[in-house]
Design brief:
Two copies of one chain form a homodimer. With 425 residues, the first copy, chain A, is of the alpha/beta class. The first copy, chain A, folds into two domains: 205 residues, Rossmann fold (3-Layer(aba) Sandwich), CATH 3.40.50; 97 residues, Rossmann fold. In chain A, 36% of the residues lie in helices and 15% in strands. Chain A has a six-stranded mixed β-sheet with strand order 4-5-13-10-11-12, sandwiched between helices. Chain A has a four-stranded parallel β-sheet with strand order 8-7-6-9, sandwiched between helices. In chain A, strands 2-1-3 form a three-stranded antiparallel β-sheet. In chain A, helix 5 runs parallel beside helix 6 and helix 13 packs across helix 14. The longest helix of chain A has 15 residues. The first copy, chain A, starts with 18 loop residues before the first strand and ends in a 6-residue tail after the last helix. At the A-B interface, helix 5, strand 7, helix 6, strand 8 and helix 7 of A face helix 5, strand 7, helix 6, strand 8 and helix 7 of B. Strand 14 of chain A pairs parallel with strand 8 of chain B, so a sheet runs across the interface. Chains A, B: It holds the Pfam family PALP.
Chain lengths: 425, 425
Amino acid sequence: MTLAPERATLPSPDAANPAVSLSCRHCGATYPLSATHVCVECFAPLEIAYDEDRLRKVTRASIEAGPSNLWRYVGLLPAGHVAERRVSLDAGWTPLRPAQRLAAELGMRTLWVKDDSANPTHSFKDRVVSVALTAARELGFHTVACASTGNLAQSVAAHAASAGLRSVVLVPHDLEAGKTVSTAVYGGTLVAIKGNYDDVNRLCSELAGEYEWAFVNVNVRPFYAEGSKTLGYEVAEQLGWRIPGQVVVPIASGSLLTKVDKAFGELGRLGLVEPTPYKVFGAQAAGCNPVAAAYARGADTVAPVKPSTIAKSLSIGNPADGPYALDVARRTGGAITDVTDDEIVDGIRLLARTEGIFGETAGGVTVACLRRLLNEGLLDPDVETVIYNTGDGLKTLDPLVSTGGPTATIPPSLSAFEAAGLGDD
Amino acid sequence: MTLAPERATLPSPDAANPAVSLSCRHCGATYPLSATHVCVECFAPLEIAYDEDRLRKVTRASIEAGPSNLWRYVGLLPAGHVAERRVSLDAGWTPLRPAQRLAAELGMRTLWVKDDSANPTHSFKDRVVSVALTAARELGFHTVACASTGNLAQSVAAHAASAGLRSVVLVPHDLEAGKTVSTAVYGGTLVAIKGNYDDVNRLCSELAGEYEWAFVNVNVRPFYAEGSKTLGYEVAEQLGWRIPGQVVVPIASGSLLTKVDKAFGELGRLGLVEPTPYKVFGAQAAGCNPVAAAYARGADTVAPVKPSTIAKSLSIGNPADGPYALDVARRTGGAITDVTDDEIVDGIRLLARTEGIFGETAGGVTVACLRRLLNEGLLDPDVETVIYNTGDGLKTLDPLVSTGGPTATIPPSLSAFEAAGLGDD
C-alpha cells in the first residue's frame, strides 16, 4: 500500500531534520513537507525551507565526524536523519583533484577538478537520487519513477534495487543499447517510449497524476534538488573550509549551478567558512545553449531550443532553473558560455591527457568552456578555480569512436614495432 | 634518458621502505630492488622481500592516520615512501558493502561485497598500476609499458598521463572499439597488434629486452603484484581489524588470490589483527578454468587451456600464479570452482538486482561461484563471507546486450502504459 502524495507528509516533527516546510520560490506560500513540487497559488516551483536555528547546530566537527559520503552533510539536508533508513550506495565525498598539469597547459595558477565520476553509478545524479529516494521512503512510497536518457535512469534503478524499492524508469525507445543494458540489469521496470525525451517527460507528468509513486524529478523534486548542494559543501570542506574564487559548472536544467551557489551561501551564513566572494561560471554545449544564449543577449528569460549536441546529459532545451542560473552568474560576477561539439571532444581529451581523468561529454563541455572563458578574459587565471566533472567517460564513448583509434596497427614483431617509429623518442 | 633495468636500483637505502631486496620464490636467491622479475639461477619468479623489523613499525593508528587510498598501507609496500613522488589517482579504500539482500537470497548469514569498481578507472588494476608506476618512477624510468586486453590498458594510460610519464600500451587489434577509445583518450602510445593476446604478450617480452622501459607486468611485476595485498588489508581494516572466515576471489593469473592470502597472513603475524583461521575460495569461468580444473583433478600443476568465455578479464589460459593459488585454497581449506557463461550473466544480474552493484563479467563469475560453492556445501552459509567485485559492468556491456532489453516498448500514452500492465502490482 502506498500513501497518496497529497496525504504523505513526513511522519512527525523530527528535531534532527532542519527542513520544516516547502515554500514557493515566487510567492513564498508554504506547504507541509510532502511529495509536491508546484505552488497551487502561482504555479511556481517549490523548494525546501529550513529552520535556521536547526541549521546552526551543524559544526565543522559534526560534519567531519560523519561518514565518507554525502550524508556527512545530513544536518543541512531535508531527509535521511535516521541513518538506517537512508537509501545509500555511498554517493558523494568524491575526490577534489589538484590539476597542476592542466593548469600549466592553460596558463592558470591553481586549478582543481571535482571528480564526480567516482560516484557509485559514475555520475553526480547519485547524490540527488540518494536524497530523493530516502525522502520517498520516509514519505511512505514503495515505488519510485523517473524519465531519463541515461545517468538518472541508471542511478534510480541501482538505488531502488539496493533498497528493495520498485522502480519504473521511462526512456526514449531509441536509446543506445549500452544505456538500456546498464539500467535494465538492476531488474526494475524499464519502459521504452516510442517518442523523444519530451514525449517521455510528458507521459511521466501524466503518470504522476495517476499513480501514488515518487517521481524523483517531479513530485519529490524539491528533495531531489537539495542533494546537489553537497557538491558545494564538499569542495569547501576539501579545500580546508574555504570557498574557491571561481567555479565552472555545467548547465542542463540549471539546478546544479544554483545549488552550488546556495551551498556556498549557506556555509558562509552559518559561519562554517569565511564568506569570501566567488564567481560562478556556467558551461553549455552550443548545440543546446538556451542559458548561454540568454546570458549573451542580456535577457532575464530563457528561450527554449531544440537540442542537437553530443552532450546528451546536458540536452535540456527548456531548462527549469535557467533563469535562476542566469541570476547566479550575474550576481556573483561570473558568466555563461558555450562550446561546439568539436571543442567538447578536445576538452575530454585535454582532461584525460593531462590529469588521467576520463570525463563524460558534460566534463568535456566544462573543460572546453574553462578554456574559452580564459581566452575571452572572463575568468582570471590567477584566481583559484574549481571545475566540476559530473560523469564518467565510459558512459559516453560514442563521440570518441570515430577519432579515438590506436597510434599504429602492426604485425606482432619487433622489427615492425621499430619500423613504425614506436621506440624511444 | 632512462636507466637500463639492470642498473636501475632504488636510489639509496631508505629507512621508510620496508622492502629490502627481491628474492626468488623457488630457490631463495636474493637480488637488489630493481626492475627484474626472474631468478637467473632457476628462472622462477622473484618477489619482494621485507625487513620484518620495519614492517613491525606499522600500527593500526599509523594506518588509520593515512590517506583514504591504498597508500595508507605504504608501510607494508615496496614503493611510494615519499608521498610527493607517488603516481596516484587515489586508487583503493573502496567500499566494503554489507550485502544483506544478496545474503538473504542465497540463505547466508553475513555477506559483504568488496566493491573495487569504485577505483578511478573502475577496476582493481588501478591498485597494482599505482604501485608499479610509483616504483618505475623511483627506479628512474620515464616510459611505462604493458600488454593488455582492457582494464590494465586503461589504468596504465590514465596513471601515466596524470604523472607525465610516457605510456606504450599493446593490445590485440580486434579489441572492442570501446576499450580502444577508453585507453586512447589519455593520449599515450596505443599499439594494435595483428594477433591474439598471446602474440601481444610475446612481443611485449621481446620489447622488454630491447627498451629501457618499465613493463608493468614484466620487469616491475614484483612491485606491481604487491599492490594487490591492499585488497586484503582493506577488508580486514573495514571489518574493524578482523579477518573474515571466508573470501571468494576471482582468478586470472592467480596473483590477486595469493596476495589477499599474503595480506591476511601479514596482518596476523604483525599483530595488527587476531590471526583467526580463514578459507580462500577461487572463482573461474568454465571457458577458462585451468586452476579450477587442476583443483578438481587434485593436481599440483596447471595445464594451460585456450580461453573461450565472456569473462575476458579472467582469460589467462596459462596463469603464472596458478600453482600458488591452488596451494592457498588447499592450505586454508577453501576450494576453486568454475561457472558457465550463462551462470556468469545470471551472477551479474543477481548482484545488480539485490545490491544495486553492476559488476564486470569477473564480478559475475565471483557471485555465480559463490552460489555454486554454497550449493555444493563447500562454503558455509553461516560463516562471515567477503566476495570481491574487481571491475565495473560499464566495461563489459556486450554479454548483456542480447538479453538486457526493456520490460516493454509502448507509445507515449497513459492508456498504452496501463494496457501494458505497468501500473501498480
